[in-house]
Amino acid sequence: MNTMTRLLVIACLVLPFTACKKEEAPKVEVAAPLSVPTTDDVTAWRAYVNDVATRNMDGVTNSPFVYFLPSDKAEGFGGLYERLLEKLEQDLGRGIMEGNMLVFASPAQEKTTEMVETAFKPVPPASMKGVKVVFVGTPILGERVRTAVEPAGVKYIFVEAK
């Protein structure tokens, strides 16, 4: 009986160590980031914006809100701008909850910056904590956007369009 007890004790001590053998996680290769399109091609821009959004999804629990304007040379640009501004104002007016992300990118960077500045003016301070705002543009425009969105309490991410 003494031998049997000893064998059971040894088995109880050895079993956890053999069960903890971890398998290595498969290595996942991360593709290189896409470059900012140098043309006004909407398809290339959408692929680029999708890539930027995907790379900044950590901590985001919902699908991102993407606000994309085509080139200001596009037919009907003025109407597209007005509709997108109205949509952004409505989204912000309803409130954006923690865990969401807003992405702004466009070949018409100046107009996108103007749209963000206009839409964020009425947003109450610190009302968007836990929300990410990603802006793709030049450093000067990025600072204008930062100034417009940070009072709302967002986590601001600037992606330089180079």
What does this entry look like structurally?
The protein is α/β, with parallel strands linked by helices and 162 residues long. The mean pLDDT is 87. The protein has five helices and four strands. Strands 1-2-3-4 form a four-stranded parallel beta sheet, with helices on both faces. The chain has one domain (26-160).
Into how many domains do the coordinates divide? 1
Strand content: 5-15%
Question: How many helices?
Answer: 5
The SSE string, one letter per element, is HHEHEHEHE
Gyration radius over CA? 25 Å
β-strand number: 4
Class based on secondary structure composition and strand pairing: alpha/beta
Biggest beta sheet summary: 4 strands, parallel
Helix content: 40-55%
**What's the average pLDDT?**
87
In whole angstroms, the N-to-C terminal distance is 77 Å
Shape, principal axes of CA atoms? globular
Uncertain ranges: none
Quick recap of the structure?
The chain is an alpha/beta fold. It has helices at 2-19, 42-55, 77-94, 109-120, 139-149; strands at 65-68, 101-105, 132-137, 155-160.
Descriptive keywords:
single chain, 162 residues, alpha/beta, four-stranded parallel sheet, 4 strands, 13% strand
List the helices and strands and how they pair.
Elements: H1 2-19, H2 42-55, E1 65-68, H3 77-94, E2 101-105, H4 109-120, E3 132-137, H5 139-149, E4 155-160
Parallel strand pairs: 1-2, 2-3, 3-4
Helix pairs in contact: 3-4, 4-5
